[in-house]
Automatic annotation (TrEMBL):
Pathway membership, UniProt: Amino-acid biosynthesis; L-proline biosynthesis; L-glutamate 5-semialdehyde from L-ornithine: step 1/1
Record protein name field: ornithine aminotransferase
Lineage: Bacteria, Bacillati, Actinomycetota, Actinomycetes, Micrococcales
Keyword annotations from UniProtKB, A to Z: Amino-acid biosynthesis, Aminotransferase, Proline biosynthesis, Pyridoxal phosphate, Transferase
Any single GO BP term: L-proline biosynthetic process
Keyword Transferase (UniProt): yes
């Protein structure tokens, strides 16, 4: 299906999508304009953790569409308090500030950390610094790309926001060396999603937690992608037994229906915001809160997190076998989330995703030879295995075409 030239003329080309035009989705499956069906192994970068049009989420949204959808924060509505109570209960946190997109949640955390630094920690005016990690992805605003190390995300968008120190990801010693009296926060993803599901050393988060506590620095964990069940726990930080002072949530919080994000964390930190100091017209709107609360209801029993763990074992076994065959050079998995590096000469991540799409499986490359798999947590084991078998098949055929001698058959 090719997009005609008129469309290209009117649509900004800030994406390079695969050549599919989707019209319908249900659960783990989507259908294109020609009626072809595909397994969705990307799940909206984890925004679709519960699959397409999960009945409970559609029900919550439909019910709220028949009541009230927008009030602005100038007035309260009856979904806001239950949403705040639900998300803080689910995450074991004290307080919530609702926003819309992940980038806005990160911006909110940056502002909270700076204000806390000046008003509570006593950092001299305009001096606050925040430590961030190389290869991080926290969104696309001008301030957030100021702390990016990805030239594609940065080039041409300066001048940048000052006040960030960038250290290698996974290196707690580098964080220790970067902390000084001006440091208000360390902002980091527990698992780097866009970088290709990079998992830091096992003691990384616990060491960061101790460093931050000792130096009176806030640990801000960006769980926009890693949070809400993906890693087999409600939050990825639980795997290390740490709690961030602030945690950003997004993507799956909107149930694949609309953008819903939030910062949750310590009351004495989010408490620095007073009326008028921060806000959003759409943040915490009734429709968003109704859907977000239904997401909390889906996660509260813990069965989806358990599913992510169980299915993750199945996925890891399949992918490890492809590494053993020499088709992948490495694989990183946590829960139902995988980053894999293609080892077939001449086959790029993009090329692999194109061939997968032709065989009815949708995935997306992150960088170069790396692709990420993040199927819905609701996927059946049968569908998961089906998609992974297609992946193996596509890799094997591509390897045979290049005459790769490490591959048999
Ligand atoms: C996707 C993502 C964001 C940005 O979310 P948007 O809703 O696209 O603004 C921020 N942080 C992480 C870790 C993400 O994966």
């Amino acid at each position: 299906m090719t997009v005609d030239r008129d469309t290209r003329a009117v649509l900004a080309q800030n994406y390079h999508p695969l050549d599919v035009v989707l019209v319908e989705g249900e659960g783990s499956w989507v259908t294109d304009v020609q009626g072809r069906r595909y397994l969705d192994f990307l799940a909206g970068y984890s925004a679709l953790n519960f699959g397409h049009r999960h009945p409970a989420l559609v029900e919550a949204a439909t019910r709220q569409l028949g009541r009230i959808t927008l009030t602005s924060r100038a007035f309260d509505h009856d979904q806001l308090a239950p949403f705040a109570l639900g998300v803080t209960r689910l995450t074991g946190t004290d307080m919530l500030l609702p926003m819309n997109t992940g980038a806005e949640a990160v911006e909110t955390a940056i502002k909270a950390a700076r204000k806390w630094g000046y008003e509570v920690k006593g950092v001299p005016a305009e001096q606050a610094t925040i430590i961030v990690a190389e290869g991080a992805f926290h969104g696309r605003t001008t301030t957030i790309v100021s702390m990016s190390t990805d030239p594609e995300a940065r080039d041409g968008f300066g001048p940048f926001t000052p006040g960030f120190r960038i250290v290698p990801y996974g290196d707690a010693d580098a964080v220790a060396a970067a902390i000084d009296a001006t440091t208000v926060a360390m902002l980091v993803e527990p698992v780097q999603g866009e970088s290709g599901v990079l998992i830091p050393p096992a003691d990384y988060l616990t060491r960061l937690r101790a460093l931050c506590t000792d130096a009176d620095v806030l640990l801000v964990l960006d769980e926009v992608q890693s949070g809400l069940g993906r890693t087999g726990t409600t939050l990825a930080q639980e795997l290390s037994g740490v709690q961030g002072d602030l945690t950003t949530l997004g993507k799956a919080l909107g149930g694949g229906i609309l953008p819903v994000s939030a910062v949750v964390g310590r009351r004495d930190v989010l408490g620095v915001f007073t009326p008028g100091t921060h806000g959003s017209t759409f943040g915490g709107n009734p429709l968003a809160c109704a859907v977000g609360l239904a997401v909390v209801d889906l996660l509260e029993p813990g069965t989806l997190q358990e599913r992510a763990r169980t299915l993750g074992v199945v996925m890891t076994a399949h992918l490890d076998a492809l590494v053993a065959e020499g088709l992948l050079s490495s694989v990183r998995t946590t829960g139902l989330w995988a980053g894999l590096d293609v080892a077939v000469p001449g086959l790029s991540g993009r090329g692999l995703c194109e061939q997968l799409a032709a065989r009815g499986v949708l995935a997306k490359d992150t960088h170069g030879d790396t692709i990420r798999l993040a199927p819905p947590l609701t996927i059946s084991e049968e569908d998961l295995t089906l998609g992974l078998d297609v992946l193996g098949d596509v890799l094997r055929k591509a390897a045979r075409r290049t005459g790769m001698d490490s591959v048999e058959g």
